[in-house]
C-alpha cells in the first residue's frame, strides 16, 4: 500500500481540525457531559472510522480495509480496558466534572503524539528486522498470560509512575484547581496546576498500554498508515466512551479473558508471519519456513466473535451473580438532560472500585 505524503498531511490535518473543534466546544461552555451528548459523539467517531474504512476499501482494496477495521476494533477493545484506569485517575486527582472532558481530550492528544513516534519506530524496525515479529509475539503472549491470571480481580489504587514523580519534582504544583488553567502565577511565581499533572497522567499511562496494543495491531497490518489511523480513531472516540460506558464497565466481568484470547491469537499470527518471513540463521538455515498464514478475514472474525462472546457472557454472569460486579462511578456522566455530578464539584478520591486491566498496575511503572 503506497501512501503519498500529501495523504499523510491531509489525514493529520483532518485530525487536528477535529481536535480543535472539540476543544472549542469544550472551552466555549465547560460542562459535565451527559449520556445523550456522549452517545452522539461516540456515534460520530464510530461513523467517522467507518467512512474512513470504506474509503480505504474504495481506493486501496478490501484487504487493506479489512486490516484497518481489524486493527481499529482491536485497538478500541483494548482502549476500553484503559477506561478502568482512567476512572481511577480521575477519582485520585479529584477532577471537577466540568473539566473531565478537557482532561481526557488533552491527555489523549498527548498519547496520540507519543504513539505516533512509537509506531514510526516500530514500522522502521519491522522493515529492517523480520525477527521483531518474534519479539512482538512474545510481548503479546506475556500480556495475555497476565490478563488471564488477573481474571475478575480488581484494584482501586492509583500509583504515580516515575514520569509523574519526576514532573512533580521539577515543577511546583498548586494544591487546588484554578478552573481549566494548566499554569497560574501566584505572588509573582509560576505554578502548574493539578490539571496539567492529570493530563500527563492520562497520556503517559496510555502510552504504557500502547506497549501491548501497538504490537497487537502490527500483527494485523504492517502498514504504518493504517496502524496510525486505527489508533487515532480508537483514541479519539475513547474519551466519549468514558462517559457513556460507566454503567457497563462494571459488568464486563470477563473482559480480561476475552482480551487475553485476542492477544494470544494475534501472537500466534505474528509467529506464523515471522516464520514465513524468517531470516534468522538458526531457524531453517535462515530460509523462510513454509507455514500457513492467518488471513485478515479470519482475524477479523475471531476478534469480533471473541468480543461478542465475552460481552454476552459477562452480562449473563453479572445478572446471575451480582456479587462479581465491581461498581464504577464515572463522575460527570449524567442522564440525558442533566449531569450526574453537580458542575464544579470534584469526585471524591477513593470512591471507585475498579477491575484492574491486568496489563499493568494502574500507575503503570510505579514502584
Describe the fold and architecture.
Helix content is 64%, strand content 2%. Helix 2 packs antiparallel against helix 3 (62-92) and helix 4 (100-128) packs parallel to helix 7 (194-218). By secondary structure, it is mainly α. A hairpin with a 2-residue loop joins strand 1 (183-186) and strand 2 (189-192). It has helices spanning 5-28, 35-60, 62-92, 100-128, 132-150, 162-170, 194-218, 224-244, 246-249, 255-276, 296-320; strands at 183-186, 189-192. It has one domain (5-324).
Provide a compact summary of the structure.
Helix content is 64%, strand content 2%.
List keywords for this structure.
single chain, 367 residues, mainly alpha, 11 helices, 64% helix, globular, disordered C terminus
Amino acid at each position: 500500500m503506497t501512501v503519498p505524503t500529501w495523504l499523510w498531511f491531509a489525514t493529520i490535518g483532518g485530525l487536528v481540525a477535529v481536535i480543535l473543534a472539540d476543544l472549542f466546544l469544550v472551552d466555549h461552555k465547560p460542562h459535565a457531559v451527559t449520556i445523550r451528548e456522549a452517545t452522539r459523539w461516540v456515534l460520530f467517531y464510530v461513523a467517522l472510522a467507518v467512512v474512513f474504512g470504506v474509503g480505504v476499501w474504495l481506493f486501496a482494496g478490501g484487504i487493506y480495509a479489512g486490516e484497518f477495521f481489524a486493527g481499529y476494533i482491536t485497538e478500541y477493545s483494548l482502549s476500553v480496558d484503559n477506561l478502568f484506569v482512567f476512572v481511577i485517575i480521575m477519582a485520585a486527582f479529584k477532577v471537577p466534572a466540568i473539566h473531565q472532558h478537557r482532561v481526557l481530550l488533552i491527555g489523549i492528544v498527548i498519547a496520540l503524539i507519543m504513539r505516533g513516534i512509537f509506531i514510526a519506530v516500530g514500522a522502521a524496525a519491522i522493515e529492517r528486522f523480520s525477527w521483531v515479529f518474534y519479539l512482538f509475539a512474545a510481548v503479546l503472549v506475556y500480556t495475555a498470560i497476565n490478563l488471564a491470571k488477573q481474571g475478575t480481580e480488581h484494584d482501586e489504587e492509583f500509583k504515580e509512575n516515575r514520569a509523574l514523580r519526576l514532573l512533580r519534582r521539577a515543577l511546583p504544583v498548586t494544591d487546588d484547581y484554578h478552573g481549566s488553567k494548566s499554569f497560574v502565577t501566584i505572588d509573582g511565581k509560576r505554578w502548574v496546576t493539578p490539571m496539567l499533572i492529570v493530563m500527563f497522567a492520562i497520556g503517559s499511562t496510555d502510552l504504557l498500554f500502547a506497549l501491548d496494543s501497538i504490537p497487537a495491531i502490527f500483527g494485523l497490518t504492517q502498514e504504518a498508515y493504517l496502524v496510525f489511523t486505527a489508533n487515532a480513531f480508537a483514541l479519539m472516540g475513547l474519551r466519549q466512551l468514558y462517559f457513556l460506558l460507566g454503567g457497563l464497565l462494571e459488568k464486563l466481568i470477563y473482559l480480561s479473558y476475552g482480551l487475553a484470547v485476542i492477544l494470544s491469537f494475534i501472537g500466534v499470527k505474528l509467529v506464523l508471519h515471522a516464520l514465513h518471513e524468517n531470516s534468522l540463521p538458526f531457524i531453517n538455515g535462515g530460509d523462510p519456513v513454509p507455514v500457513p498464514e492467518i488471513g485478515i478475514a479470519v482475524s477479523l472474525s475471531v476478534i469480533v466473535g471473541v468480543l461478542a462472546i465475552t460481552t454476552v457472557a459477562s452480562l449473563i454472569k453479572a445478572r446471575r451473580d451480582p456479587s462479581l460486579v465491581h461498581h464504577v462511578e464515572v463522575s460527570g456522566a449524567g442522564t440525558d438532560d442533566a449531569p450526574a455530578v453537580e458542575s464544579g464539584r470534584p469526585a471524591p478520591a477513593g470512591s471507585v472500585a475498579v477491575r484492574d486491566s491486568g496489563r499493568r498496575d494502574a500507575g503503570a511503572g510505579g514502584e
